[in-house]
Amino acid sequence: MASARQPRRAGLVYGVVTYLIWGVLPLYFVLMAPTGPVELVAARVIFSVVFCAIIVAVTRRWRHIGALLADRHVVGPLAVAALLIYANWQLYVIAVETAHVLEASLGYFINPIVTVLLAVIFQHERLTRMQWAAVGVSVVAIAVLVVAYGQVPWIGLGLALSFGFYGLIKSRVADRVDAIGGLTVETTLLVPVAIAALVVVEVGMGGLTFARTGVGHALLLASTGVVTAVPLMTFAAASRRLPLSWLGFIQYLGPTLQFLIGLLVLHEPMPAARLAGFALIWAAIALLLVDGALQARRAHVPRG
Q1: Considering only CA atoms, which of 161, 148, 68, 70 is closest in space to residue 102?
Q2: CA distances for 122 relative to 68, 84, 116, 191, angstroms
Q3: Which residues are within 8 A (CB) of 135 and not within 5 positions of it... i.e. 6 or more apart?
Q4: What residues form the membrane-spanning segments (predicted)?
């Protein structure tokens, strides 16, 4: 019994570490000033490639990476996934640098509901009544937030949709692509996009900050590779050791931390109407969590 608990306990630690890192990213990106969002995301791609290359070299997995790049059934979906995650990173950094951290947290609160809808549309999965109720409450919540913001919360919806489609595409090659292999291929494919972005910043947006703001800032930018890769590694370790239902609960740690940072640390406004929209989203999440718990319990009931 104790030996069975140990992998689960380790998985819980890995899962919490993963979402703690993702949850405090707003504070990390705030430290990146005066680097703008275009340069920051491009740097994140470049230094992620560097960090992944080090890991691949240490683990001697170049042949595996080469096989992934040579397999058109893998590299095609990963190329689309790469563009989606680039858009997701860009939106997230823009959210942080324009004081929209609360809206960014909204995107990741909504993401599981978007994932459920995508599963219905593209994988023809059937929803339970409680899942449909969660979707309905979410639609009402978004309507309330449109009124509260005075416009559609494009950043939140963009983050939820880009990450939802990213997850959908990655799920189709999950049996052939591990976390580091996938990140290595995706960021490698994004290098031309990142280089083009850096050229645009240097030529038309006031110049790059990387070589002009001191060694400390350059090292901070370089650390984006580590900050990108490490939580993916810990998430992969958690997913191997924990039931999916546990990960379903833990995943809300990230947006909860982002919400608290936006509200209490960065002092973004939260009028009553906006809070009502968030409260409806949390109610939808509660429905999903209860549904997940009920399904997990049914799965463990012995059949006679």
Answers
A1: 148
A2: 24, 17, 10, 30
A3: 113, 116, 117, 127, 284
A4: 12-29, 41-62, 74-94, 106-123, 130-148, 189-211, 217-237, 244-266, 272-294
**Calpha distance 74→86 (Å, rounded):** 18
Structural tokens at position 120: 């219905």
Task: Identify the domain containing residue 257 by its residue range.
Answer: 2-300
What phi and psi, each to the nearest 5 degrees, are found at residue 209?
-90, -15
Q: If we measure between CA atoms, which residue out of 136, 129, 135 comes closest to residue 294?
A: 129
**DSSP calls for 234-294:** HHHHHHHHS-HHHHHHHTTHHHHHHHHIIIIIS-----HHHHHHHHHHHHHHHHHHHHHHH
222, 47 Cβ separation under 8 angstroms: yes
* Residue 301, pLDDT score: 56
Question: Vertex 42, ends 97 and 158: CA angle to 5°?
Answer: 55
CA-based radius of gyration for the chain = 20
Cα-to-chain-centroid distance, residue 54: 23
Give residue-wise pLDDT tens across range 118-167. Answer: 888 887 878 888 888 988 998 898 899 888 888 888 999 999 999 889 98
Contact between 184 and 103 under an 8 Å Cβ cutoff? The reply is: no
pLDDT below 70 — which residues of the chain? Answer: 1-5, 244-245, 296, 299-304
Q: What global pTM score does this model have?
A: 0.88
191 backbone dihedrals φ, ψ, rounded to 5°: -55, -45
Rounded CA separation 35/299 (Å): 49
pLDDT at 1: 47
Domain count, the chain: 1
CB atoms within 10 A of CB 100: 24
